[in-house]
Amino acid sequence: MSTNTDDLKKRKAEEDSSLSSDVNKKIKEDESENESEKEDTNKIDDKNLPLPMRLKALKASKKVLSDPICTSGNGLIFTFGNGREKQASKDINKVLDEYIDKFKDIAAETKKKANSDDFDFDSAFQAELQQIKESSGSKSKYVKYTLKCNGVAYMSLNSGINPIELTSKIFKDAQDTKALKSKEINRIIPIQKTCHLSNIFEETQSLVNQYFNVDNKVYKYKIEFKSRMNNKINKVEYIQELAKLVDPKHIVDLDNPELTIIVEIVNFYCFLSIVSNYNQCKRFNLILLAGLPASNEPKKNKKVNESKETESTTEPTINESKE
Question: What ranges does the record list as Basic and acidic residues composition bias (predicted)?
Answer without folding.
Answer: 1-15, 39-48, 297-311
